Amino acid sequence: MRRLFPVTDVTDETAAPGGEEGREWSLAELAAAYAYPEPGPGGREPWLRANMVSTLDGAAQHDGRSQPISCPADMRIFGTLRALADVVVVGAQTVRQEGYRPARARAEFAAAREAAGQGPAPVIAVVTAGLDLDFSLPLFTSPLVPTLLLTGAGAAPDRVAAAERAGARVVTAGEGAAVDPARAVRALADLGHTRLLTEGGPRLLGQLVAAEVLDELCLTVSPMLTAGDAQRIAGGPSVTLPRRFALKSMLEEDGFLFTRYRRS
Fold this sequence. Notes:
Blueprint: E1 2-5, H1 27-33, E2 47-55, H2 72-84, E3 87-91, H3 92-98, H4 110-115, E4 123-127, H5 138-141, E5 148-151, H6 157-165, E6 169-172, H7 181-190, E7 195-198, H8 202-210, E8 216-222, E9 245-253, E10 256-263
Parallel strand pairs: 2-7, 2-8, 3-4, 3-7, 4-5, 5-6
Antiparallel strand pairs: 1-9, 8-10, 9-10
């Protein structure tokens, strides 16, 4: 892996002799490269980052899943971002399509998570209006920490009861059936989850962008072309004015670009 940005006048120590091929970064190096911002004078504020992958022609999925356009380095970063997070926020449709499982404890990150005051694994928080989920799945039956369900105040009582019987914690984050993204972020922060990570899907990411609560985008650019009508990384209605983000870092391996953009 090579660091392409930021460029410094010091030779990148991650580059192999000869220059073209970079060595594989350790998990500790990846964790340092993707560290959350340090707390401010008033303490830690919620910071919401998204992690997505896109092909050169803008597809976020192939055959309904992101795995076919990913790569081993992308999955290492995926795992690192999860290990840094307090909570992983994901849409219900992505849970169904991708077969989401509970986040697992990683021995490589155990000491760092303990030092940061975090549990052994991040909480999974599912954004769902209708609670139309299979509560017999491992995400609900065998997580290290109970799965959270972010839903509206108008959620059907029988579905709320079914979720709670399965061991999930239901958190109200909106009026009616819909979830208010800004209220969801506040609700998670009130539970002590300030290092937030979302893995989509595109509909949820679009809602977070429209609500102006996204602080950072970690985007893997896959050197593939898929054509077809696959979704982009963010869907839903367009915003009134495009949101400007600034490039903070770019890594490269095997033609894949691993970028980080932060709100300007």
